[in-house]
Design a protein that fits this description.
The structure is a single chain. The protein has two domains: 5-141, Rossmann fold (3-Layer(aba) Sandwich), CATH 3.40.50.2300; 157-211, Winged helix-like DNA-binding domain superfamily/Winged helix DNA-binding domain (Arc Repressor Mutant, subunit A, Orthogonal Bundle). It is 50% helix and 14% strand. It is α/β, with parallel strands linked by helices and 217 residues long. It is elongated. The protein is built from ten helices and six strands. A six-stranded parallel beta sheet has the order 2-1-3-4-5-6, with helices on both faces. Helix 2 (39-49) packs parallel to helix 3 and helix 7 (157-167) packs across helix 10. It has helices at 14-25, 39-49, 65-75, 90-98, 110-122, 134-141, 157-167, 172-179, 183-197, 202-211; strands spanning 5-10, 30-36, 53-57, 80-85, 103-106, 127-129.
Length: 217
C-alpha cells in the first residue's frame, strides 16, 4: 500500500481553507494533517507535523509566505511546498521558486489545478499552472536561482526584510531600530532598493510591496 500523503494547508481566510478541503480529501490516501491561519503558525505546524506537502498562501499576516517557504525548506528539505496565490506577479513567482517552492497555483485556478499540482509534488516534480509566462517556469527547470539571491527584478531576503516595515509606514529610524542597524544604513538600503527596482517615488515601492504580497493592503 502507498503511504498516506499528509498535507498542511495555510491560508488566512477560513473560506479558502474550507474550499480546499473537499478537493484534497476527495483523493484516496490524502489527509489534511493541519491548518494554519498565519505565517508563523504555518511554520510552527510544519516543523511539528512534518507534512509531505504544504499548500501555502503567499500573502499571509505575521510572516510572509515567501519567508515561510524558505524557512520550511531549510528545516524540512523533503517537504514539498505548493505556493497558493491570488497574485499574477512574475517577480513574485520567481521569489517563490527561489525560496524553495516546487509548484505554484493561482487561487482562481484551484478547482482545475490544485489536485494535479499536489500529485506532481508528491512525485517531486515541478508544477506551474497559471497565466504567467511559460519562460518563468523554464528558467527554473534550467537551474533557477540560489535561495539567497534576488530573482530577476525581485528582492533578496534581506531586502524584503527592509521593505516590509518601510511599506507598512515605518520611518528609517524605526526600521533601523527593529533591524539593529543605523538610520543612515537603513536610508542607504532604501535608496539602493529603489534604484534596483527602478522606482523614483516611494509610492511605487509601496505598490510593489502590496502587489508582491510583502505587505497586506
Amino acid at each position: 500500500m502507498k503511504k498516506k500523503v499528509r498535507i498542511l494547508i495555510a491560508d488566512d481566510h477560513d473560506v479558502v481553507r474550507r474550499g480546499m478541503r473537499p478537493l484534497i480529501e476527495s483523493e484516496w490516501g490524502w489527509e489534511i494533517c493541519g491548518e494554519a491561519r498565519d505565517g508563523r503558525e504555518a511554520l510552527a505546524l510544519a516543523e511539528t507535523l512534518k507534512p509531505d506537502v504544504v499548500v501555502l498562501d503567499i500573502g499571509m499576516p505575521e510572516l510572509n509566505g515567501v519567508d515561510v517557504a524558505r524557512q520550511i525548506k531549510r528545516a524540512l528539505p523533503d517537504t514539498e511546498i505548493l505556493a497558493f496565490t491570488g497574485s499574477e506577479s512574475e517577480s513574485l513567482v520567481h521569489e517563490i521558486f527561489a525560496a524553495g517552492a516546487r509548484g505554484c497555483v493561482l487561487k482562481n485556478e484551484a478547482a482545475d489545478h490544485l489536485v494535479p499540482a499536489i500529485k506532481a509534488l508528491c512525485d517531486h516534480q515541478p508544477y506551474l499552472a497559471s497565466r504567467l509566462s511559460r519562460f518563468v517556469f523554464e528558467s527554473y527547470l534550467h537551474g533557477g536561482l540560489p535561495a539567497n539571491q534576488a530573482a530577476p527584478g525581485g528582492l533578496s531576503p534581506r531586502e524584503r526584510e527592509i521593505v516590509k516595515p518601510l511599506a507598512d509606514g515605518k520611518s528609517n529610524k524605526e526600521v533601523a531600530t527593529a533591524l539593529g542597524i543605523s538610520a543612515k544604513t537603513a536610508e542607504g538600503h532604501r535608496a539602493a532598493i529603489m534604484r534596483k527596482l527602478g522606482f523614483s517615488a516611494f509610492s511605487e515601492l509601496v505598490r510593489y510591496a502590496v502587489r508582491n504580497q510583502i505587505v497586506q493592503p
